[in-house]
Design goal:
This is Glutamate synthase (NADPH) small chain. This protein is α/β, with parallel strands linked by helices. Helix content is 33%, strand content 15%. A hairpin with a 2-residue loop joins strand 11 and strand 12. Helix 6 crosses helix 9.
Length: 512
């Protein structure tokens, strides 16, 4: 039973961030240590609410109240068992998930919700430190071979579940390293990639095989008894304005992987570098924010992030009532860095590294602006030199610019981070004849099964998991879909399954 007065005795608290000038000099994660005692205090705020809506808010159905109470009592091992029963990779979600569970927390109706992410993250790191996380090898082998195409959270979750069920699983990844967008899309300062490598060692010890630098063809996949396609939704939304083709205008997913390759040690300097440049990011979501923090670490003179939508309210509005995930104004660690004001007392190293030479005391490193429409990208005929925009609003006739709100600004690097609109037509999509629907997603039924038009795959079950079938979404949804698709494929191959299926078929059908 939870402490019925814990939320009355303690306020919500999170780990502090390292000082801005210090953390902008490296790519390490931004958080200071948060003691176990403080985590136990935060866990004690979980109330005995009767109906824990956090279960429904979490796509994995994490048993949150149970492991909160176990942490409160100091039973870390039991808390770990509860956590890993529903989530293959809590060290990923604990760092990267926006926590829809917290949006559904009953305490959040009238108070700050429980800091669920911090508790989750601390549990799994306890488990790694104590050596509780070990390879879970199957007790028998089925003799069935399964191919998983794509190694993001959906692909990895499906692979781990199917390997543990006794199948011989091979994961194909077209990049040179495993991890999908977690590897090359998420900046190092948000999640150091050693945590991915640590988990991959466990999976390899369990028997999962990984093949990189390979986008498998239909001919290769015919050798398998079942296929899970988890290739993500990686075609970025473009900006059809004058100047789009100028040098210095890039999609975010052209920019971010290059920075990550520097952190991996593949090169000394990113091929798309913000150092000494005035950077404009078009798009106000997580990907744009990742570009924001990356540009600051590269030494940008200034960073501006434009969002076409209005500034969200500071408290939950009527459009996102409890227990839905609230659209509210948030300050990410990158935005916190942008709000840093130059003091004039920075060291020579900080001035050089942080791009402060052209900044005056009191200047902020970066800004966010809302309700901004980009009208034109300007240049010298070859490369970008500036941008024209206007304040905008959504009226009866859709998006419209506000009269006399036009502005121009200098820009040396423009990054497009306006979301993703479709899967790519990779060899697996073409060779199997998978259908891409009107919304850019691979078509599937409510059991995640696709219907390849290539007759050669009529007898090979093919399932679609993650963003490829769902559309751009959260890491926690990717893991959930990977687990669910694995259960359905296991059932198809064996006639029954003991693997959990966290997603209700109705949830899938509603996306069609």
């Amino acid at each position: 039973m939870a402490d019925p007065r814990g939320f009355l005795k303690h306020r919500r608290e999170s780990a502090a961030h390292r000082p801005v000038p210090l953390r902008l000099l490296d790519w390490n994660e931004v958080y200071e240590d948060f003691s176990d005692d403080k985590v136990q205090t935060q866990a004690s705020r979980c109330m005995d609410c009767g109906i824990p809506f956090c279960h429904d808010g979490c796509p994995l159905g994490n048993i949150i109240p149970e492991w909160n109470d176990l942490v409160r009592k100091g039973n870390w091992r039991e808390a770990y068992d509860r956590l890993h029963a529903t989530n293959n990779f809590p060290e990923f979600t604990g760092r990267l998930c926006p926590a829809p569970c917290e949006g559904a927390c009953v305490l959040g109706i009238g108070d700050d919700p429980v800091n669920i992410k911090t508790v989750e993250y601390t549990i799994v790191e306890h488990a790694w430190k104590e050596g509780w996380i070990k390879p879970i090898k199957p007790s028998f082998k089925t003799g069935q071979r399964v191919a998983v195409v794509g190694s993001g959270p959906a692909g990895l979750a499906a692979a781990q579940q199917l390997t543990r069920a006794g199948h011989d699983v091979t994961v194909f990844e077209r990049a040179d390293r495993i991890g999908g967008l977690m590897r090359y899309g998420v900046p190092e300062y948000k999640m150091e990639k050693k945590w991915i490598d640590r988990r991959l060692e466990q999976m390899e010890a369990e028997g999962t095989k990984f093949v990189t630098n390979t986008s498998p063809t239909g001919e290769q996949l015919k050798e398998f008894d079942g296929v899970i396609v988890a290739i993500g939704s990686t075609v970025g939304r473009d900006l059809p304005v004058v100047g789009r083709d100028l040098k210095g205008v890039y999609q975010a997913m052209e920019y971010l992987p290059e920075a990550n390759k520097v952190c991996e040690g593949d090169r000394e300097v990113s091929t798309i570098n913000a150092k000494g440049k005035r950077v404009v990011i078009i798009g106000g979501g997580d990907t744009g924010t990742d570009c924001f923090g990356t540009a600051l670490r590269q030494g940008a003179i200034s960073v501006s992030q434009f969002d076409i939508t209005p500034k969200p309210p500071k408290t939950r509005g009527a459009s996102t009532p409890w227990p839905t995930y609230p659209r509210i104004w948030r300050v990410a660690s990158a935005h916190e860095e942008g709000e840093y004001r130059v003091t004039g007392n920075e060291s020579a190293d900080e001035i050089a590294a942080l791009g402060l030479a052209e900044r005056q005391p009191g200047d902020e490193l970066g800004i966010r602006r809302y309700s901004i429409n980009t009208v034109e990208i300007t240049g010298d005929g070859e490369k970008v030199t500036g941008l024209k925009g206007a304040e905008c609003r959504f009226g009866e006739n859709g998006l419209e610019n506000i009269p006399e709100s036009d502005f121009e600004m200098d820009a040396d690097l423009v990054l497009l981070a306006m979301g993703f609109v479709s899967v790519e037509e990779t060899p697996v999509v073409r060779d199997l004849g998978l259908k891409i629907g009107e919304r850019g997603r691979l078509e599937r039924d409510d059991t995640f099964r696709a219907q390849p038009t290539n007759a050669e795959f009529a007898d090979i079950p093919v399932f679609v998991a993650g963003d490829a079938g769902r559309g751009q979404s959260l890491i926690v949804w990717g893991i959930s879909e990977g687990r669910s698709a694995a259960a359905e494929l296991d059932r198809e191959l064996m006639g029954e399954t003991a693997l959990p299926r966290p997603i209700n078929p109705t949830d899938v059908a509603m996306q069609a």
